[in-house]
């Protein structure tokens, strides 16, 4: 037995009061907790025998007996723990993780401040907390059932009077996978609607639900629909309703607002098959569109690179035309010192213009033409890309590959470009 173990034992002997720490635990998915309680110590002893075991500390308080195990070098043995639990004896283990850096005085300060890790083996207050929780659940369930019953009674009176039932929508999720592409879509097989009934009667009423039987009569055919107003969260036995459709008004996930849903409905396989065919065609079209998009993207990159590679050829082809354009627009006049114009600095800010590939002309000539078109528009008046592009096409007819790729993008062969 270590000095720390002895010191902690004698610490409890000196107490006139002690705070019983809380126990936090999970019960049916809910975290519950006993409250901390300050109690008076009536008596205390060390090395108290209990059954065939010996407890480190025994404390008798004004609310009952408690047995304390002090862990310094090893945990309490499992047999002893089982004895405490099976005998329902209030028992707790305090864990002191021994360290040469922490002296006994500091350990005493920690225990006074309730900073020592602990584990309850058994605590009778836990059962009281569970009992209180169960009583609160019963109270909440009763209040919930009363509220649901009143709501259902109002709705049923209206249903019996008007003989019109609300039929909820029926939805289904389609999925499809092809070429590592995954698709899913929720579709409506049946749209919600109000439907008149030829007959309606209340068949059954209990603490769980109201059950009504509705009938729709067409010529010699009788269509039965069971209408259930659920008051609880319990599942229904569908075998109690062997024929006809079933709709239920329930409260999913304990929510306050009721929802209608089908538990059994007429076959919708034809509609399901029709919508599934539309869904599959849509998926295949999307796959094709993506494939074509990748194809077009690769083609555009290739054409853009080729255009940049041919820049010198276009320069040789169009430089003189550009000079003529400058002279025509009174932007340049040849002199003895400068017979040929230089490219303006503003047009040098961008070294390459790959997006002009469809014109197959020197980029400086095309950009100069764009500037001329824009300059012709009145100040303050808007100008669209389509208008600008149309004007360019009148001067520079597009490359045939542009028209072909545009046609692919629009799923048709077109002659009028970019529309």
Automatic annotation (TrEMBL):
Designated name of the protein: Uncharacterized protein
Top-rank taxon: Bacteria
Lineage: Bacteria, Pseudomonadati, Pseudomonadota, Gammaproteobacteria, Enterobacterales
């Amino acid at each position: 037995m270590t000095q720390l173990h002895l010191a902690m034992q004698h610490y409890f002997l000196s107490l006139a009061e002690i705070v019983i720490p809380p126990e936090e635990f999970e019960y049916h998915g809910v975290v519950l907790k006993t409250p901390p309680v300050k109690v008076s110590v009536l008596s205390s002893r060390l090395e108290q025998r209990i059954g065939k075991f010996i407890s480190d500390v025994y404390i008798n308080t004004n609310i009952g007996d408690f047995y304390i195990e002090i862990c310094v070098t090893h945990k309490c043995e499992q047999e002893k723990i089982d004895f405490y639990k099976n005998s329902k004896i209030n028992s707790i283990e305090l864990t002191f993780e021994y360290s040469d850096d922490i002296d006994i005085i500091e350990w005493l300060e920690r225990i006074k401040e309730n900073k020592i890790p602990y584990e309850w083996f058994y605590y009778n207050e836990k059962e009281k907390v569970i009992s209180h929780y169960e009583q609160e659940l019963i109270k909440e369930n009763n209040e919930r059932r009363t509220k649901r019953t009143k709501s259902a009674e109002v709705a049923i009176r209206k249903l019996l009077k008007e003989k019109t039932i609300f039929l909820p929508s029926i939805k289904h999720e389609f999925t499809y996978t092809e070429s590592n592409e995954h698709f899913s879509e929720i579709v409506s097989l049946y749209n919600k609607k109000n439907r008149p009934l030829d007959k309606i009667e209340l068949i059954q009423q209990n603490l769980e639900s109201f059950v009504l039987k509705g009938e729709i009569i067409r010529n010699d055919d009788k269509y039965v629909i069971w209408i259930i107003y659920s008051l609880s969260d319990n599942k229904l036995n569908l075998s109690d309703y062997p024929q006809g459709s079933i709709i239920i008004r329930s409260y999913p996930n304990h929510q306050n607002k009721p929802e209608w849903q089908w538990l059994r409905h007429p076959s919708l396989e034809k509609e399901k098959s029709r919508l599934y065919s539309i869904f599959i065609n849509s998926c295949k079209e999307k796959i094709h569109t993506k494939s074509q998009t990748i194809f077009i993207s690769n083609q555009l990159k290739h054409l853009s690179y080729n255009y940049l590679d041919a820049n010198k050829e276009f320069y040789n082809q169009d430089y003189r035309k550009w000079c003529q354009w400058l002279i025509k627009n009174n932007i340049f006049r040849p002199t003895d010192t400068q017979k040929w114009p230089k490219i303006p600095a503003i047009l040098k800010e961008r070294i390459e213009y790959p997006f002009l590939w469809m014109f197959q002309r020197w980029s400086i000539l095309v950009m100069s033409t764009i500037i001329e078109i824009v300059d012709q528009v009145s100040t303050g008046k808007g100008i669209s890309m389509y208008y600008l592009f149309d004007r360019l096409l009148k001067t520079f007819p597009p490359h045939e590959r542009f028209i072909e790729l545009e046609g692919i993008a629009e799923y048709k062969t077109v002659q009028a470009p970019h529309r």
